[in-house]
Amino acid sequence: MSNVYAPTSADVALRAENLNVYYGSNLAVRDVNLEIPKNQIVAFIGPSGCGKSTVLRCFNRMNDLIPSCRVEGDVTFHGENIYAENVDAVELRRKIGMVFQKANPFPKSIYENIAWGARINGFKGDMDELVETSLRKAAVWDEVKDKLKESGLSLSGGQQQRLCIARAISIQPDIVLMDEPCSALDPISTVKVEETMKQLKEDYTIIIVTHNMQQASRVSDRTAFYNAEPTPKGGKVGYLVEYDNTEVIFNNPVSSTLATTSLAALVKV
Asked: Domain limits at 111?
């Protein structure tokens, strides 16, 4: 089957067409085609080494930071190919933010974790209001409002991750990428981050890479399942197997691979 999924609405946040990613001469991910609808949560799932995070990093050109990485194909954002020569990758990352697997607060106060990024991006409004609004949207305001001058590193792991989410949205991106944001968190913190994601999709488009099948089924509107196959050189190349509404992927997939095999078992490979 084709791995292109067309949303019912033409309101698309991001589109990947014929996307191939190489590390040196080795093809790591091949022929990815998908559309990400606005204000929805899209989950990328699949076994380790199938290219989920590699594709995610293509969406804000984080792969540019890897010298051996080369991207072919088109990734379109607001009608423009983000890999065009005239596109400023730094400016792009202001519109397509990222939250990483391990929480990485700045070694600054909780307040400055939010204010610093906004300030260097030219924010001229009410900084106190921006800090509060960002922390509220990330569902961490009530826990930190009385200690804004304390270091962000003093917070618990779950609080740090939500602080990083607040930092990402403080510069008002259109899209937030999340690369396994809950993998290092306890169950209670995971629930809080998931609740935060559901609230944030009212204002942002969210793409999350996760190994947690239950998480994908709980939070996402659409799911993309990736797999990998061996190459003649002994490596692996990832590819998109199927992309559809999450309910379809988990309960009535078209792919014979998904229809006959437990998703949980596949992802543990």
From this structure: 12-267
Q: How many CA atoms lie within 13 A of 194 on its CB side?
A: 20
CB count within 10 Å of CB 252 equals 11
Cβ atoms of 109 and 127 within 8 Å: the answer is no
What is the rounded distance in angstroms from the CA atom of residue 153 to the CA atom of residue 106? 8
How far is it, in rounded angstroms, from Cα 224 to Cα 210?
11
Q: Is residue 4 part of a domain?
A: no
Q: What is the DSSP letter of 97?
A: E
Assigned domain for 260 exists: yes
Q: Give me the CATH number covering residue 242.
A: 3.40.50.300
The mean pLDDT value for 106-129 works out to 93
Report the alpha-carbon distance of residue 240 to residue 220 in Å, rounded. Answer: 17
Mean local confidence (pLDDT), 230-243: 91
DSSP for 183-210 reads TTS-HHHHHHHHHHHHHHTTT-EEEEE-
- 3-class SS of residue 69: strand
Q: What is the pLDDT of residues 225-235, one digit of tens each?
A: 999 999 887 88
Euclidean distance between CA atoms 54 and 51, whole angstroms: 5
Total number of domains constituting the chain: 1
Q: Is the pTM of this model over 0.70?
A: yes
Q: Mapped to the 3 state alphabet, what secondary structure does 29-40 carry?
A: EEEEEEEEECCC
Buried b (16+ CB within 10 A) or exposed e, 78-96: eeeebbeeeeeeeebbbeb
